[in-house]
Write a structure and sequence with these properties.
InterPro entries: ATP-dep_AA_Ligase, ATP-grasp, ATP_grasp_subdomain_1. Helix content is about 35%, strand content about 25%. The protein is α+β, with helices and mostly antiparallel strands. It is globular. The chain starts with 5 loop residues before the first strand and ends in a 13-residue tail after the last helix.
Length: about 400
C-alpha cells in the first residue's frame, strides 16, 4: 500500500480551492500556508489538514527565515513530500523551501524563469524564441543603445509583478528617462521593453515529465494592459480550433516550456501577434493556473479543470504512478468580467442557454459562455459587453500593487 503523501501548498492570495479538494480526493494529507489576513476566507477547510498563517510585512513581503524556522519545527513530526505554489507571488517561496529542505521539484534557478520578466526574456531570446526588444535598467549606455535601436513607444515593467500591475507606457526618450530617474534606487527591479501593438493571446497548459500534455489557446478581445489602465472590460475567447493561429501558439508554448525546464506544473503563457509583421512574440509565462477565472473558461470549452488535473498529476508524479489526462472536449468558450457599480449586480438580464458560469463577487459582473460555434461565442461577448458598459461597468485606477 502506498504511504500517504503530504503536500504543502502556498497561496498568499485566496485561490486554488479546486486544487486543494482534488489533492485531498487523491488521498493526500494537505497543509496550506496562507496570509493571516486571509484566515477567514471561504477556504475548503474539509480538504486542508492543517493551516499555517504568515504575517505580511509593511512592504508587502513575507519573512522567509521565519517561514523556514516554522516549517523546520513542523517537519520534526510531520514530513513534507511536495511543495506547490498556487499563485505567482508564491513561486519563489516554494522554490526556496524545496531547496532548503531538499524536497523534489522546481528550484530557484528554474523558478526565476517563471517569475522574473528579465530572466524569462533573456532565456527565451537565448533559446531562439522571438521576444520584443528589451533591456535591463542597470546601465545608462545600454539603455541609450536600446532607445536608438528600438523607437518608442516603450513599456517599463516591474520584473516580478503579476498581471498588468505597475506597467507604464512612454512615448518619448525624455519621458522614459524621467520615469527611470523617478524609480531611483529601485530601477534595477524593472526593465524596458519595445511596445508592439498586436493581438494578445494566452496558452494555458499542463506539463508532465517535461512534456506539454494539454494546452488550450485563447485570445484576449482587449489586451490586459488596456483593461487595467484604460478601465476596460476583460474578455477572452477560444482561438479557432485546428487553425494556423492555434498551431503557432502551441508550438511557441511547447518550445518555451521545454527551454525553461518546466517538469510538472500548470502554466499560463502570454503571446502577442504583432500587427506590423504578423509574427508571434513571447510576452511572459508563469508556473501556475491563469488568474481572472480563465480556468473556468478553459474548462467550459475543453472539459479540463486545470486546478484538478494539476493536483491529480502532481499526486501521480509524487507516487511514481502514471497520470492520464481525461478526454478533451473541443468546443468554444468566452469570458467577460467587469467591475460593477452595484455591490451585487442583478444578472437576470443574462439568460442565454450558452451561459455556464456566473461570477459571485461583490462589485463584479462576470460570465462564461460555451458553444460549438465560435461565431456564437463572439456574438454573445459583443452583446454582453454593450449591456455591461451601459448598465454595470465601473472602472478603478490601475493598482500600484496587485490585489487579486
Amino acid at each position: 500500500m502506498t504511504p500517504t503523501l503530504t503536500f504543502l501548498c502556498i497561496s498568499t492570495y485566496f485561490k486554488g480551492n479546486d486544487f486543494l479538494l482534488a489533492l485531498k480526493d487523491a488521498g493526500n494529507k494537505v497543509f496550506l500556508i496562507t496570509a493571516k489576513k486571509l484566515e477567514h476566507k471561504p477556504w475548503v477547510r474539509e480538504a486542508v489538514d492543517e493551516f499555517f498563517y504568515i504575517e505580511e510585512g509593511e512592504d508587502g513581503t513575507y519573512n522567509m527565515n521565519e517561514i523556514i524556522t516554522g516549517l523546520a519545527y513542523v517537519m520534526r513530526t510531520r514530513p513534507i513530500d511536495r511543495v506547490v505554489a498556487l499563485d505567482d507571488f508564491d513561486v519563489e517561496k516554494a522554490a526556496h523551501i524545496r531547496e532548503y529542505f531538499r524536497i523534489p521539484g522546481m528550484g530557484q534557478t528554474t523558478g526565476r524563469y517563471f517569475r522574473d520578466k528579465l530572466a524569462m526574456r533573456t532565456k527565451a531570446l537565448e533559446s531562439g524564441i522571438l521576444v520584443p526588444g528589451f533591456s535591463a535598467l542597470f546601465n545608462d549606455d545600454q539603455i541609450n543603445r536600446f532607445i536608438e535601436k528600438y523607437p518608442g513607444p516603450w513599456m517599463i515593467k516591474p520584473r516580478s509583478e503579476a498581471s498588468a500591475t505597475g506597467i507604464q507606457k512612454l512615448s518619448t526618450a525624455e519621458e522614459l528617462w524621467n520615469t527611470i530617474h523617478e524609480l531611483g534606487d529601485k530601477r534595477h527591479a524593472y526593465l524596458v521593453e519595445q511596445y508592439k501593438p498586436g493581438d494578445v493571446y494566452h496558452v494555458d497548459s499542463i506539463s508532465y515529465n517535461g512534456i506539454v500534455i494539454f494546452s488550450w489557446n485563447s485570445k484576449y478581445l482587449a489586451p490586459p494592459f488596456d483593461v487595467a489602465h484604460g478601465g476596460g472590460i476583460f474578455r477572452s475567447v477560444t482561438v479557432p480550433l485546428d487553425s494556423s493561429e492555434e498551431h503557432a501558439l502551441q508550438t511557441l508554448a511547447v518550445d518555451l516550456l521545454k527551454a525553461f525546464g518546466l517538469k510538472h506544473s500548470a502554466s499560463h503563457t502570454e503571446v502577442i501577434r504583432c500587427y506590423d509583421d504578423g509574427k508571434y512574440y513571447f510576452l511572459e509565462t508563469s508556473s501556475r493556473v491563469g488568474g481572472a477565472h480563465l480556468s473556468e473558461m478553459v474548462e467550459a470549452a475543453s472539459g479540463i479543470n486545470l486546478w484538478k488535473e494539476w493536483a491529480r498529476m502532481e499526486t501521480a508524479e509524487a507516487k511514481g504512478e502514471n497520470y492520464k489526462l481525461p478526454s478533451v472536449r473541443k468546443e468554444y468558450s468566452g469570458i467577460i468580467i467587469s467591475l460593477a457599480r452595484q455591490e451585487w449586480p442583478d444578472l437576470s438580464v443574462f439568460n442565454d442557454p450558452e451561459i455556464v458560469w456566473r461570477m459571485e463577487e461583490p462589485h463584479h459582473v462576470g460570465l462564461v459562455v460555451r458553444s460549438k460555434s465560435r461565431d456564437k461565442v463572439l456574438e454573445l461577448m459583443d452583446k454582453y459587453a454593450a449591456i455591461v458598459q451601459k448598465k454595470y461597468h465601473a472602472s478603478a485606477p490601475a493598482p500600484k500593487k496587485p490585489t487579486h
